[in-house]
Amino acid sequence: MFPLVLVVLTFLVCSSDGSDVVLGILGNSAFIECQLPISNTLIWQTENGNVIAMNGRVINENSTKYLIEKQNGLRESLVIHDLTLADDNIFRCFDLKNRTFVDSTKLNVLAVSGIVKLLMMEEGPQVLIRTLLAGICVEPRTFSKPAGTHNAFTIVFLFFILYFLARAPMMNVTVTPPQPMLEGTEVTLTCEADGGKPLPEIRWFIKSTNGSVTEVNGNVTDIKYPNGTGHRTNTLRTTVTRDLYRATFICNITVSLLYQETFTVDTDVLLAPLKPEITSRDYDGSFDENSVLKVQCSSKGGRPTPTIYWLLDGNRVGDVEVVVKTHENGTATVVSNLSKQMSRVYNGSVLTCAATNRVLLDQGLPPRVANITLLASYKPNVWIEQHEYTTKLGDNVTFNCNIDANPLPYFEQLYWTNKGVMVDRKYYYLSNESDVFSLNLQDVEITDTGYYACHAVNRLGASSSEQIKLTVLYAPVCGYSSVQKVAVRLGEGAGLNCSMMASPNDVMFTWRYRQNDERITKMRATKDMRSIDHVYGVLDLTVGSQIRYGEIECHGNNTQGMSLNPCIFEIVPPGPPEIPGNCSTTVDKSQVQIKCVAGFNGGSTQHFILQKLGNIEFQTLLANDIPDFQFNSYENVTIRICAYNDDYKNIRNCAIPSEIVVYVPAFSDVPQSDPVKGEKSHKTAYIAGGVIAAFGVIIIAIIVSVLLFRRYKKVCYKVKQARFPYTTNNKLTSSLHNSYVYSQPGY
């Protein structure tokens, strides 16, 4: 398109208003040839009538501006030196004798800069241009006007000469600050053209990496010189963005239609890293207590290669591995893998992945960051705020346990214990936030006294709270479940141990004879070191007469009141021991075990024997100091346990006989001998013998039963006549002061 414009322009400059056109370059010389013959009356003048020369001579001889040259004696030429814009005019030559013919030539003075100006100062280009212009627009007589019929070849040749001479006008492009450019900074591009008439047009364009060209507006400023030329500047100020990476700035300078020049600036942009990403798959910041956290972070788009570092609550951390990948477009991707041992203290902490490079550092900008809040998963931590509770019997009390855990335990994973035994879940309560677990005890009893603990479990482990001590205040309660028998000889003494439970344990004891409500004494309790709420009082009693045999009761009194039921002691004379009771039998095939509970010892150490019923009477099998026996039997047996003591060795009190059914091996399980070969089996004889034997056994059993029944009646009659106790199974205290007292372990 541009060459075509110059071709058209060449035709236009040579055919303006019917006059020849001569192109002159500002500051150089121009040659105008007159097409009229030389004569003494030939005059040169300007359009406004100013006469320059006559008869081949310049009017002002002192001037060096103009010069008349004669060519081969046939034509005159007007030479104009040091062209200025004022010389842009129409020059005429004519003969005073014949004004019919006037040769007018239009001088166009062009202001061209750069190489054109420099070349015009050289003799060769001057001659060439002068010759070409004269050949086109000031032709010999052989050519006729108008100039539009000039030689086309000469026109095209002149176009190329002008085009190539105008390729590099005097211009200057500067970039401030100098490259490389930093993303985010402001850059100034200045395109200048010095000289020109008219002033050149300067435009800025941006060519992106995809090839699209967009014009951008700069700030144009002009400076005009006295000679009519000027200096034009187009200043483009823009902020460097990522879109300018590998883009091209283009400055386009156009001088009228003759000259067009472009100047390109290929951008060298340094890019800040993009915001990093924590790229671990579906990572939400959660971790298990005491685990190793492994997380990955990547940053893309940085140039130069960015640096990645890790922060935990603002402090540098990390055992990291870094991988760098450089891309074809010159940017880099950095991947950092963090490995760190984690604990519960990091719950709620902020983990930061930070990426930076020279672009950010040189501008004093903070790094690009990605944050994630850490969420620890840990086993429960349970604690209580109150360690002791005191309540009264029958009141309600509530314990609260605080829970810190992630994940929080389910209701089924929480429980309370009292002295190591789990409390009934019907008393549990869990808050809506699941962080307070309560135990609501209603209508508390004495057995609720103790040490409670809260327990919580989740997938990471279990935890227990400190103990809560619950003290239940109640009036004294007797520690015995039944009447305590004490054997004392007439005229001797015994110590009665009254055991009670009470809270508080500051108990006052009172003793009385039950038969006449006679008060014996009043004494303060002695504390039992085995239990904080267990106390006892000891009464030294002497049986001076028969009337002192009988029952004595013991009462306790504390701040909560008097005992509801007293402890009762029965004072009796020494005698045989009571019959063992509450017997239980265990049979495992042929092995038999029988256990009984010893009765009152009668006042001296008692012993036990195991008897088995023979054909007519009981026979002793085993003897022991406790009513506990083991034996083997391969047939059903009837047994009993009897008791006697050291003072009454000849009197034995026996429990009711018990029939024990044991495992009898089947006939096939008993080893059999092989039959004799050739001996004939007589099955009929065997059957008959078996029937007869069965009848015999039945008759013998009837006789034995009658005999046993008679013997049993005699024994029972003797026991009744002796008036010995036979039904008690009581807990008695130890012997004091030569009295015979049943002793139970633990008292």
Overall pLDDT level:
80
Helix content: 10-25%
How many structural domains can be distinguished in the coordinates? 6
Overall form: rod-shaped
Counting helices, strands and paired strands, the structural category is: mainly beta
Low-confidence stretches: 1-16, 113-154, 163-169, 666-686, 712-747
- Helical segment tally? 6
Sheet-strand content, in percent, reads over 45%
Assigned CATH architecture of the largest domain: Sandwich
By CATH, the superfamily of the largest domain comes out as: Immunoglobulins
Enter the CATH topology name of the largest domain.
Immunoglobulin-like
Q: Could you give a short account of the major beta sheet?
A: 9 strands, mixed
CATH class descriptor name of the largest domain:
Mainly Beta
Q: What Rg do the Cα atoms give? A: 67 Å
Distance between the termini: 127 Å
Structure keywords:
mainly beta, rod-shaped, 6 domains, Immunoglobulin-like, 12% helix, 9-stranded mixed beta sheet, 6-stranded mixed beta sheet, 747 residues
Written description of the protein model:
The structure is a single chain. The chain is mostly beta strands and 747 residues long. It contains six helices and 55 strands. β4 (51-54) and β5 form a beta hairpin. The protein is rod-shaped and about 200 Å long.
Describe the structure in brief:
By secondary structure, this protein is mainly beta.
Give a topology summary.
Elements: H1 2-13, E1 20-25, E2 30-33, E3 42-46, E4 51-54, E5 57-58, E6 66-71, E7 75-80, E8 89-95, E9 98-110, H2 115-120, H3 123-137, H4 152-165, E10 171-176, E11 181-182, E12 186-194, E13 201-207, E14 213-216, E15 219-224, E16 230-239, E17 248-255, E18 259-266, E19 269-270, E20 277-278, E21 286-288, E22 292-302, E23 307-312, E24 315-317, E25 319-326, E26 332-341, E27 350-356, H5 358-362, E28 368-373, E29 375-383, E30 388-392, E31 397-406, E32 414-418, E33 421-422, E34 428-430, E35 436-441, E36 450-458, E37 461-464, E38 468-478, E39 484-487, E40 493-503, E41 508-513, E42 518-524, E43 526-527, E44 534-542, E45 550-558, E46 561-562, E47 567-572, E48 581-588, E49 591-597, E50 606-613, E51 618-624, E52 628-632, E53 637-645, E54 653-654, E55 658-660, H6 683-722
Parallel strand pairs: 1-9, 11-19, 21-29, 30-38, 39-47
Antiparallel strand pairs: 2-7, 3-4, 3-8, 4-5, 6-7, 8-9, 10-12, 12-16, 13-14, 13-17, 15-16, 17-18, 20-22, 22-26, 23-24, 23-27, 25-26, 27-28, 29-31, 31-35, 32-33, 32-36, 34-35, 36-37, 36-38, 38-40, 40-44, 41-42, 41-45, 43-44, 45-46, 45-47, 48-49, 49-52, 50-51, 50-53, 53-54, 53-55
